[in-house]
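Sanity check. The docking grid for zinc ion depends on where the pocket ends up, so I'm generating a full predicted complex first rather than guessing from homology. Inputs follow.
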Amino acid sequence: MKIAVSILGANFADLGTEVRQLDRAGADWVHVDVMDGHFVPNITFGPNMVHSLRPLTEKPLDVHLMISQPQAYIPQFIQAGADVVTFHLEAEGDPAQTIQQIHAAGAKAGISVKPGTPVTALRPYLSQVDMVLIMSVEPGFGGQKFNPAMLEKVRWLKKEAPQLPVEIDGGINPDTIHAAAEAGVEIFVAGSAIVGKADYKAAVTALHRASE
Ligand code: DX5
Ligand code: ZN
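Predicted complex below; grid placement will be based on this.
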């Protein structure tokens, strides 16, 4: 299992310090939430932030694009150092083309669905992507409550494409992670369960333990 720590709730004025701390605390991936104020009602940052973070950690940068026009920005994010790029099925553009674009630029491709989108809509793309990201909250903000009904989507994916890694994002904490792990999730995004806590290492360890 992997913990992908979301820096959404970090102190953006001191993001370098935060990322170095998360690296030392045992984060497996650094999850970078990109929001455009259009696809979701919040704004974060763009490729330049990924470029600035890149030299601070050797951990994979897991870039989650919550933006309406992923194809217009994907090359810049990969150029900046993104290792995994996940876009939303609900965004503009042909998903098969978007996946090809990510691969052609040299990154791994993930596809994500919001809570209201049926997971079966992903069927045509399961043989093309490297990962599926299931949103267990409405995208846009950290600190929301985990929706356990989304685990049904994970179970469906694990039947449909057993080898394909599934990531879950939203409301993961020591109380919710076990059920997600049992459903078949391999990669757990965690924001508020780690960032903002006094001891990042203890928080990462608590998630690892609770997942077992
Ligand atoms: C929500 C983001 C998540 C969020 C997770 O739109 O995609 O990555 O930061 O935060 P928590 O773990 O607090 O739900
Ligand atoms: Zn995210």
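Relevant for the grid: The pocket of D-xylitol-5-phosphate (ligand 1) is lined by residues 6, 8, 31, 33, 64, 137, 139-140, 142-144, 169-172, 189-193 (CB under 6 Å).
Also worth noting: Residues 200-211 form the longest helix (12 residues).
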